[in-house]
Amino acid sequence: MEDEVDRLVAAWRRERPDLDVEPLEVLSRVSRLARHLDRARRLAFSEHSLEPWEFDVLTALRRAGAPYQLSPGQLLTQTLVTSGTMTNRIDRLAQKGLVERLPDPSDRRGVLVRLTDEGRDRADRSLAGLLAQERAILSELSPAQRTELAGLLRRLTAPFDNIPG
Amino acid sequence: MEDEVDRLVAAWRRERPDLDVEPLEVLSRVSRLARHLDRARRLAFSEHSLEPWEFDVLTALRRAGAPYQLSPGQLLTQTLVTSGTMTNRIDRLAQKGLVERLPDPSDRRGVLVRLTDEGRDRADRSLAGLLAQERAILSELSPAQRTELAGLLRRLTAPFDNIPG
DNA sequence: CGCAGTTATCTCGACGTCAAGAAGGACGAC
DNA sequence: GTCGTCCTTCTTGACGTCGAGATAACTGCG
User: Is strand D within 7 Å of residue B53 (CB)?
Assistant: First the structure.
């Protein structure tokens, strides 16, 4: 089955036969797929009246395990947003009663963000919904292909995640 | 090499051993990689004083071939943004002299967006830069692995691109 | 012809993100 | 100790995107 990137690559080969556009076969697909996933997630979460960005923060805290708290800095590396954005997100989640800010006892510059009970419930319930949706999307691939794909992607993400750039 | 998604998955398995979080191995990597790519592109384009969104629109027109014109609607499907966003983008590109709006001769509701000569130069020059950057990122993989990865990704993107959702 | 439904583009207000920088605290060298 | 540097979080203003709705024009059925 052909996709939009096939058309895009064919167009470049016609217009710029002098260039090797093979890298687009991989990376344009990654970008476009991510955009499709964003839209799909927005739909899925709207059933729980949750925005994708809320999900990202709440589940990062949920994953941390009891007592479900992380510093804003730790949340930055997990969600790939800037510090200004994170301050804003925490403000809004705190206003909704899903998280609370506590002073860091070991560093007076620092803050700890803790999940409230309601925040934890929301995180748990919406995760199940997300997994169901993702499973449907991945049903195009066999289990072996999914493993293969995950492995190839890891090789591309690892440099970004390990050598902070 | 381990990446952030490996840590994320391990954390879920510890916190929610009742759930099968295998889908995240693929799709969380896609989302995170796309975010890293966005940042890298922003840097690469800043040398040409071009924003990623400008690149997206200009190259879509460039790919169309002479006379380098498309309707706003055609640009929507290629760039995955909403119509309000596209109107705004065309306004700003027109103001910079990189594109111009022409009436569609066959449909009076319609508009054609055409690349100016300067817009075309900008598109051509920045594409070369992007490809160089992407090639560096993909050097982690062998040619055969790149082909394999592109094929697996195609199977996931095709349903989105063909059954408009 | 006239009307309903559809399609193409634009308008508008709300919202979230970013980049840059400020303020305050930690920490090592000396 | 204390100075300079680095780190952590928050503040701010500009900007781009979205969603919903408005407008205008094309289409085909009766």
Answer: yes
Whole-model pTM: value is: 0.92
Cβ-based contacts under 8 A for chains A and B: 200
Nearest CA in chain B to A31: B34
Q: Which residue is listed with tokens 């700890």?
A: A112
Question: pLDDT (tens digit, 9 = 90+) per residue, A34-50?
Answer: 999 998 898 888 888 89
Amino acid at position A74, single letter: Q
Residues of B in contact with A80 (CB under 8 A): 32, 35-36, 39
Q: Which residues touch strand C (CB under 7 A)?
A: A 51, 53, 80-85, 88-89, 92, 107-109; B 39, 42, 71-73, 83-84, 86-88, 90-91, 101, 104, 107, 109-111
Predicted confidence (pLDDT) per residue in A135-154, tens digit: 999 999 999 999 999 999 99
How does residue B112 score in pLDDT terms, banded at 50, 70 and 90?
very high
A154, B32 in Cβ contact below 8 A? Answer: no
Q: Tell me the backbone φ, ψ of residue A99, rounded to 5 degrees.
A: -140, 165
